[in-house]
Write a structure and sequence with these properties.
Blueprint: H1 2-7, H2 9-13, E1 18-19, E2 24-25, H3 27-64, H4 84-89, E3 120-123, H5 129-145, E4 149-151, H6 167-170, H7 173-179, E5 185-187, H8 196-200, E6 203-205, H9 213-227, E7 229-232, H10 246-259, H11 264-279, E8 283-287, H12 292-298, H13 306-318, H14 329-334, H15 342-352, E9 359-362, H16 370-380, E10 384-385, H17 387-390, H18 393-396, H19 403-416, E11 419-422, H20 427-438, E12 443-444, H21 449-460, H22 466-476
Parallel strand pairs: 3-4, 3-7, 4-5, 6-7, 8-9, 8-11, 9-10, 11-12
Antiparallel strand pairs: 1-2
Biased composition (Low complexity): 1-12
Protein name: O-fucosyltransferase family protein
InterPro entries: FucosylTrfase_pln, GDP-Fuc_O-FucTrfase
Length: 510
């Protein structure tokens, strides 16, 4: 290459391949010029290919690997939390500085995965937002494992909340499809080749709950070969917590934490809400699961009046799909199967050492009994807020009467908070807990309701002094702060195991 450069210097430097003295073209200089031009083009093309490869590889790595904490921290409450600094300094948990839901530049478009589809999978999710969210992750994983084409999931419109929202009203469809295109083909509707008869007589079934991948290959895949299109009419808890191949567990996380993003409108308002809360410093989210439907269907009426108990019982009997009718409330409460009441929550927060000035955000629907039942919490913590208090009516108007979209706002705030405390371990509590682990083991206080009920009763009948009660409450929760732990496995009893989405441990290590 060096001799080529020197040989062409007289021609190229004296006029780009022309002999200035004679005004004629130099044959040697012209040949060298053409050769150098081809070398330059080759180098340019090679550089473009190399950089394109690097960008694609970087994008894929970012999609597969979350931002992880440097170590596996431990934490406990050694003393009461009196100030914002106390809350921050009492834990070794990593706090991610940027909001999880802030807008990002779109990643480079991943290449389509090329595969022969074994059929089309239509899914109708059932339940509330977080039950459906986990189900979507499972269904993408099933579609990937069986080489199926997935239709954009349908959301539940017939549940107690009767929310008419579609997938596109809550989640960013374009991002969902594009961020998973290297794994599974996702389409908005069936191709035209399927006639009306196929659509109207589509084979419909609920997969068996808590199934491993072997069930889907042995029982479900042959059905797709026969029917080509299958409708899963129930999707909750249709994949096992444990025992799945590592790549499938990681894909469930990728869908949940990378592909499922809320719509730009929801993210914008959620970020506004988070910014307002962060301006005043540390804030705590209390997921106070004390709505009318929760109490009616669980049969938990501790603290309710006789009239309220009758109203809740009537509601439970009015819904034929709810099979459990006769419920002994106090027995269920003593077993730790009831949400804590607002009055009980106020005592627990004080015992844990949260200062009176702590800003507490209530993430929930309408509290049964309204402000009357919240009075005790507000007396203990005057800085108690809800989204309706922080945002204007104009902000919330597009999302009102859409309980799932309102729940999405609470979800974003819950994931971003400094501390998250659920009063009941329902779907939102579990899925948010797992998301906070994924974000760096953000502090989540998992209340031991069975122990707390005993302690509360002992304190309220004057058997335990306040100091004894407070010490006991903090001791019970020393190892229930969302720190790294191994997911509990209970063979043959999957419902009693630790839920995958509350502790996706396969996705939290290096």
């Amino acid at each position: 290459m060096e001799s080529c450069s020197s040989g062409s210097s007289s021609g190229s430097m004296n006029g780009g391949g022309y002999n200035n003295k004679k005004g004629g073209k130099s044959s040697n200089g012209g040949g060298s010029y053409g050769f150098n031009f081809r070398v330059w083009i080759f180098r340019l093309s090679t550089s473009i290919l190399v950089w394109t490869g690097i960008i694609q590889l970087t994008s894929m790595v970012e999609l597969w690997h979350p931002h992880l904490p440097k170590g596996w921290p431990t934490a406990c409450i050694d003393r009461p939390l009196h100030t914002s600094d106390d809350i921050k300094n009492s834990t070794n948990f990593s706090i991610v500085s940027e909001h999880q839901f802030s807008p990002h530049s779109p990643p480079s478009l991943l290449p389509n995965r090329v595969y022969r589809s074994n059929g089309y999978l239509r899914v109708s999710c059932n339940g509330g937002l977080n039950q459906m969210r986990a189900a979507i992750c499972d269904m993408v994983t099933v579609a990937r494992y069986l080489n199926l084409t997935l239709l954009v999931p349908e959301l539940d419109k017939t549940s107690f909340w009767a929310d008419p929202s579609d997938f596109k009203d809550i989640f960013n469809v374009k991002h969902f499809v594009n961020s998973l295109r290297d794994e599974v083909r996702i389409v908005k509707s069936l191709p035209k080749k399927f006639n009306r008869k196929t659509r109207s007589t589509m084979y419909s079934m609920p997969p068996v709950s808590w199934s491993t991948e072997k069930y889907y290959t042995k029982q479900i895949l042959p059905l797709f070969r026969r029917h080509k299109v299958i409708h899963f009419n129930k999707t909750d808890a249709r994949l096992a917590n444990n025992g799945l191949p590592l790549e499938l567990q990681k894909l469930r996380c990728r869908v949940n934490y990378q592909a499922l993003r809320f719509t730009p409108q929801l993210e914008t308002l959620g970020n506004k809400l988070i910014s307002i809360l962060k301006k005043s410093g540390v804030f705590v989210v209390l997921h106070l699961r004390y709505e009318m439907d929760m109490l009616a269907f669980s049969g938990c009426t501790h603290g309710c009046s006789v009239k309220e108990t009758e109203e809740l019982t009537e509601m439970r009997y009015a819904y034929p799909w709810w099979k459990e009718k006769e419920i002994v409330s106090e027995k269920k409460r003593l077993e730790g199967l009831c949400p804590l009441t607002p009055e009980e929550i106020a005592l627990v927060l004080q015992a844990l050492g949260f200062a009176r000035s702590t800003r507490i955000y209530i993430a929930s629907g309408e509290i049964y009994g309204g402000e009357r039942r919240l009075a005790t919490v507000r007396a203990a913590y005057p800085n108690l807020v809800r989204k309706e208090m922080l945002l204007s009516q104009d902000d919330l108007r597009p999302f009102q009467n859409h309980s799932t979209q309102m729940a999405a706002l609470d979800y974003m705030v819950s994931a971003a908070s400094d501390v998250f405390i659920p009063s009941y371990d329902g779907n939102m509590a579990k899925v948010v807990e797992g998301h906070r682990r994924y974000l760096g083991f953000r502090r989540t206080i998992q209340l031991d309701r069975k122990e707390l009920v005993d302690l509360l009763d002992l304190h309220q009948n004057n058997t335990l002094s306040w100091d004894e009660f407070s010490d006991a409450v903090r001791h019970v929760h020393e190892r229930r702060m969302g720190q790294p732990t191994i997911r509990q496995v209970i063979p043959d009893r999957p419902k009693e195991e630790d839920y995958f989405y509350s502790n996706p441990q396969e996705c939290l290590g290096p």
